[in-house]
């Protein structure tokens, strides 16, 4: 096929508010380098990483909750997930579902025509498990908020599914983040997992993937979203911030807290963990600064794990779960690419339960 020279793309021009995302109708269409593939984007998911990178929230100079708006002081040295500067202009978007339409040198041409989803983690081909040699799609290189994108051939995973492109674009970031958290916390069928923020993309994925492991799952979400969250299969659902969480839990014994919320309620979550319990975290949308009583930490024999860079097998495993129907998409809304600003505004305001995607 003849590939276009230009394409429509939503380009982030710098750190700041939503106006930093600018639509270009004639952005240069990328070409796959050696070891890469060119994907025609069918849909691309929207995640906290996109919002936080644009706003510069990852910088340690920022101590507020995620707002999606501009911050007065964003450190120049650490404004991204990896604690390093980002190059602008940048096309963001890590969760692509699409079709391979061209390949670079060294990639089997038989891959042209494959339907794929992307693994957001960009790994060194000679050291795939070295977390210090990773980048992120839509951060260290251009991503999927465009009609076409390139990525490493190894990061484009073939998938066979009757789900739509929009539905498949909900999985990569949210579900891999959730599976990474559960893997770090070594969750099994013997656990009872508490999931704050269960109405969001990662929270909903945590519910499904913890249930897949056989664990008992207790979800927390605003009461207006309980009906949607219950469709994901938790054993119990509680209000977002119960005044007396221990009493509300009754006889439930929480062995794992899988948290992406943080904020002022954080000490309450830690206090309900059983002796020997585990806390795993991959976000802090309600605020990164929390208060910890170290006596609770060591006297209760707790284990804390942070989870960002997933292991290489997580995404192939997720593809298998999807193809086997073991997990389902939680697609809340789909917006056209030209309305990416509106999509992010809705995402930030938590107007929807589940994941939001954009389509070219």
From TrEMBL:
The keyword NADP applies. It comes from Shimia thalassica. It comes from the Bacteria. It is an enzyme of class 1 (oxidoreductase). SMART domains: PKS_ER (SM00829). The keyword tRNA processing does not apply. Gene3D superfamilies: Medium-chain alcohol dehydrogenases, catalytic domain (3.90.180.10), NAD(P)-binding Rossmann-like Domain (3.40.50.720). This is D-arabitol-phosphate dehydrogenase. Residues 16-358 form the Enoyl reductase (ER) domain. Its EC number is 1.1.1.301. It holds the Pfam family ADH_N. Keywords: NADP, Oxidoreductase. SUPFAM superfamilies: GroES-like (SSF50129), NAD(P)-binding Rossmann-fold domains (SSF51735). GO terms for molecular function: oxidoreductase activity.
């Amino acid at each position: 096929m003849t590939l276009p020279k230009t394409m429509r793309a939503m380009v982030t021009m710098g750190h700041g508010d939503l106006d930093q995302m600018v639509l270009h109708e004639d952005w240069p269409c990328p070409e796959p380098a050696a070891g890469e593939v060119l994907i025609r984007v069918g849909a691309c998911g929207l995640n906290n990483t996109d919002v936080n990178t644009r706003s510069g929230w990852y910088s340690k100079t920022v101590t507020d909750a995620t707002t999606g708006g501009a911050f007065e002081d964003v450190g120049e040295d650490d404004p991204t997930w990896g604690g390093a500067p980002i190059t602008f202009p940048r096309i963001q978007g890590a969760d692509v579902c699409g079709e391979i339409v061209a390949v670079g040198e060294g990639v089997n041409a038989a891959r042209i025509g494959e339907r794929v989803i992307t693994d957001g983690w960009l790994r060194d081909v000679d050291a795939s498990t070295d977390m210090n040699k990773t980048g992120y799609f839509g951060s260290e290189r251009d991503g999927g908020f465009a009609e076409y994108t390139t990525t490493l051939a190894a990061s484009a995973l073939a998938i066979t599914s009757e789900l739509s492109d929009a539905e498949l674009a909900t999985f990569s970031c949210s579900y891999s983040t959730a599976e990474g958290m559960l893997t770090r916390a070594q969750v099994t069928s013997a656990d009872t997992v508490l999931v704050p923020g269960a109405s969001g993309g990662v929270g909903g994925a945590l519910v499904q993937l913890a249930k897949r492991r056989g664990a008992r799952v207790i979800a927390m979400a605003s009461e207006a979203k309980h009906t949607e969250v219950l469709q994901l299969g938790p054993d119990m659902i509680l209000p977002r911030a119960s005044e007396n969480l221990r009493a509300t839990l009754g006889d439930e014994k929480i062995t794992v807290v899988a948290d992406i919320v943080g904020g002022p309620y954080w000490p309450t979550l830690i206090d309900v963990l059983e002796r020997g319990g585990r806390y795993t975290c991959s976000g802090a949308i309600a605020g990164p600064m929390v208060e910890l009583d170290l006596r609770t930490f060591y006297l209760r024999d707790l284990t804390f794990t942070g989870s960002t860079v997933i292991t290489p097998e997580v995404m192939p495993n997720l593809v298998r779960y999807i193809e086997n129907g073991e997990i389902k998409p939680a697609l809340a809304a789909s917006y056209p690419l030209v309305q990416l600003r509106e999509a992010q505004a809705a995402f930030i305001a938590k107007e929807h339960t589940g994941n939001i995607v954009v389509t070219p």
